[in-house]
Amino acid sequence: MDDSNLTFEWVDDSSEKRYDIVVNDAFGNEIWTQTMEGVSGGNASIIYDGPALEDGLYYQFKVTSFSKLDGGTPLSTTEDLKGVFFK
């Protein structure tokens, strides 16, 4: 899998103002974080532009939606196992 083609996609949370995206390695170490403004309807997605991921390892991406652009209350998060992927 070429990292330049890696896109994370999830169902839009209709009440969000922003998303925080985190990618962790199999040991729970944070590899990449990104914040983006909310989207309106459909699916939300973001292209991975972090450091190169190692072949043969598991990773996890998790998305949390928030009620405000700065701060705010966490509204929802993606399911733990749905974000696990193998490079």
Characteristic terms for this protein:
single chain; two-stranded antiparallel ribbon; Immunoglobulin-like; mainly beta
Describe the structure.
The chain is mainly beta. It has strands at 7-11, 18-25, 30-37, 43-47, 58-66, 74-77, 84-86. The chain has one domain (3-86): Sandwich (Immunoglobulin-like), CATH 2.60.40. Strands 2, 3, 5, 6 and 7 form a five-stranded antiparallel β-sheet that branches. Strands 1-4 form a two-stranded antiparallel ribbon.
Write the layout of secondary structure elements.
Blueprint: E1 7-11, E2 18-25, E3 30-37, E4 43-47, E5 58-66, E6 74-77, E7 84-86
Antiparallel strand pairs: 1-4, 2-3, 2-5, 5-6, 5-7
Helix content percent band: under 10%
Instruction: Give the end-to-end Cα distance, rounded to a whole number of Å.
Output: 6 Å
Beta-strand content bin? over 45%
| CATH class descriptor | Mainly Beta
Largest sheet: 5 strands, antiparallel
Given as residue ranges, the uncertain stretches (5+ residues, pLDDT < 50) are: none
Overall SS class: mainly beta
Q: Sum up the overall morphology in one term.
A: elongated
Tell how many strands the DSSP assignment holds: 7
Question: How many domains?
Answer: 1
Order of helices and strands: EEEEEEE
CATH topology: Immunoglobulin-like
Q: Report the average pLDDT across residues.
A: 93
CATH architecture: Sandwich
Q: Can I get a quick summary?
A:
By secondary structure, the protein is an all-beta fold. The chain contains no helices and 7 strands.
